[in-house]
Structure formats: C-alpha cells, structure tokens
Amino acid sequence: MAIILTVAGSDSVGGAGVEADIKAISSMGAHAAVALTAVTAQNTSRLREIFPLPPEQVTAQITAVAEDVCISAVKTGMLFSPRTVRAVASLLTELKVPLVVDPVLFAGVGASLHTEGLAGSLAKDLFPLATVVTPNREEAELLSGIKVTNEVSLEEIGNALLDLGPRAVLLKGGHLEGNVARDLLFTAEGVLEMVSPRLDRKVHGAGCTLSSFIATGLGLGMDPREAVQEAKRRIYDSIAMALPVGKGLLAINPMATLYKEAMRARVIEEVRSAVETIERRLPPQLVPEVGMNLAFALPYPQGYREICGVQGRLVRVGDSIRRAGDVRFGGSRHIARVVMAAAAADPEMRCVMNLRYSEETLADLVSFGLEIGSFDRAEEPESVSSMEWGTSQAILGYGHVPDVIFDRGGVGKEPMVRVLGRDPEEVLGKIAGLMQGEDRP
Fold first, then answer.
1. Same fold for the pair 3-261 and 263-434
2. What is the pLDDT of residues 208-247, one digit of tens each?
3. What is the pLDDT of residues 345-359, one digit of tens each?
4. Which of 323, 356, 357, 350 has the alpha carbon at shortest distance from 336?
5. Which residues are within 8 A (CB) of 103 and not within 5 positions of it... i.e. 6 or more apart?
6. Cα distances (angstroms) measured from residue 202 to each of 14, 213, 248
7. Predicted model pTM
8. Which CATH number fits domain 263-434: 3.40.225.10, 3.40.50.150, 3.30.365.10, 1.20.120.450?
C-alpha cells in the first residue's frame, strides 16, 4: 500500500489542510500519514487565529512516521515559518521520496498563513528537493518576483521557479482570468498546457486537495506528468461537487471522483433497463435512419468515458428494435455530445434519447405538455460540433434546458428529436404516451 505523508496545518471547518489531504489521499486508495504544523481556528468565511506548532514537534512527528512505515511520497502545505521550513527540509533530504510542495501563503478566505521570510525559505530550502511545486497566481508572483500580465510573464514565472530546483512547476490556472482554467506544467522537457472548463464557484481547499492528488499519484508510481493530469481530472470533480457546509466558500469535495466511480454499475443498470423497455414497447417507426441511442452521464461528465450508452446504437429490425452492441461507458459519441451540452447548462440534466423526427411525433410531445426547444442547422458555424452547438443554442433560446430539442435537418443531416431528462426513468416517462400498451412478442 502507498503511504503518503502530508505535512500541513489543520482546518477546523474541515475544508482544507490535513482534513482535505486525508480525504484526497484516501480517495485514491492510499494511506494518509500526518505531521501537523499548525492548528487554525477558521471557517468558510474567515480565519480567526493560528496556533503554530514548534518546529521540533513537527519534525518529531515526521521522524515517528518515517521510522515505522515506508513513506511513498510527501506533500507539504502550510508550514507557516522559515524555521519550520528549514527543519522539515533537513529531514526530507534524508527520505529521498517524491515531494510535492504546495507553497501555501494565504488561506482561501484571503488571510495570511505565513510569517516574514517564508516565501524566500520555501524557494531556497524546499524547492530544490521538490518533484512538483504547485503555486497559485499570487504565490507564484511572490516567489518569482514577476507580475502576471500576459502569456510571456507566465512563461517567465514558470521558468524562474523551475530554475530554483524542482523537477516540475505547476502554475494553477484557477486564479487566472478567462472562460477556461488553464494549468501550465513546466519541466526540463518543455511546457504542457492543460485546459478544462472554468467552474463558476469559489471553493475552500482546492490547492491542498490538488497537491495531495499529485503526491498520491507519484506515490503510486506515476511520473510527474501523469500524476498532474490525473490530479487535474480529480480536482475538476472535487470543485464541481463542492459542498455548501457553511455560510462562506464551498468546501472542496476530495471524494467526488470516488463517488462518481461508485455510480458506474448503477448507471449501466439504469440504461440497460431503459433499453429493454424501448426494445419491448417503443414503436419501431420512431427509430431514426441513423439509429437510436439513450445516453446517461455520471455527474459533471468530463468526456465520453463518463457517459453510458449503447455501443452501435439501437436499430430497427423489421417490426422490432434491437441493440447493435452492449451497454457501456463510451458507447455513445453522437448523443453523448448532447448530454455534455445539456449537463453544462444544468448539471441535473444528464440523460438524452433521440427519436425519428415527424410533425406527428412533435405534436404528440407538445400535447403531453413538454417544453420544446429547437435549433436551425443552417445557422451552424463551421468547425464546431453540431450536437453541442445546436443543443447550446436551443437551451440559450429557451432560457433553460427544455424537455425536447429538435431540428429539421440540413444537407446530409437527418431531422431529429431529442428528449432530455435527469435519468432514463424520467426520459421514458416523458414519452410514455408514445409507448405501445403491451410488450411486443
């Protein structure tokens, strides 16, 4: 078993510090060991007080852990003072294991978490030992002495921090401006840019959690690039599924990816059950020429691998409907794009099914009292995904995600009706009036 040591402070509200670290490390199947550097009295709105532990007590904890277990990797967070940095660095020099340094200088609520000289001591004493360092924008500016003004200054900062000795520098993009979160990983081999949608929410504990994910990845045998990419995937889930525990910032949810993975079997079963109902009771004339699919996503899907559908789609065979392949994650690409766009607008709307377009079907859906949206393929820009663009346009025009989105086709494009809902049961419920009263033989 991988054992990850976190050297950091305690957060009384449980959203950051070692409390977040332990959850992040455990969520990846590793064991968390702790060396506490300080006790903070804070919540999601403000930092009230800090009670730093003497450096000797911090090193005593590290020594106690190291003499008993085989440490796979170390992560440092809030160290508070230069004296603690130097004491920790002297021990970590002897451990010779992967080290992730999160140069914590400020709390998520904006309060200072350091004494004078900490930034300089981190750069001088700890960075040369680090496998990866993970500063946010404000920390990176203080550590490098360079202000972020454009892309050039970002590169200058990354290279300046890399020159201090770590194997890799991750400049976190959550604090930068723009519609996407851009993280830059600097190594001797060059710069890797990682982009994800920006989530419009303020969270407590994101930096602690990200660095713990990276340290755990390294402890599990990943190289720095692999560990950072895996951490990036997990931190997106953790922020997307953050918890409203208090009156201020949302608390990061380090267990989010683990919770999502645990949902996979249930999602497959729900899709499979819905597909069996479709095969038994949906009139075959409702199957489009291109085939039919029903796709159901995990919460906040990050790609096709998190969307379950029928491989090869459902097709009409005479007077019956049959699936061409098995129900699995990644089984749909076409309808999965609609799911991605719908879930981006409303995270609850994670299921979509397509039907053959006809004026009669559309009239039936209207008579059921469903909300109907549409888009015109003639207005589609070049070099975009038709399904994502069209779905987004229909949602924008309607003001929220409607029950149905249709289009009347275009050159080489079949007209289509798409039914959206929270899950397969809700989607089938919306088209219950189209179903046959009895199962087909």
1. no
2. 999 999 999 999 999 999 999 999 999 999 999 999 999 9
3. 999 999 999 999 999
4. 350
5. 119, 122, 133, 134, 135, 139, 143
6. 16, 19, 9
7. 0.93
8. 3.40.225.10
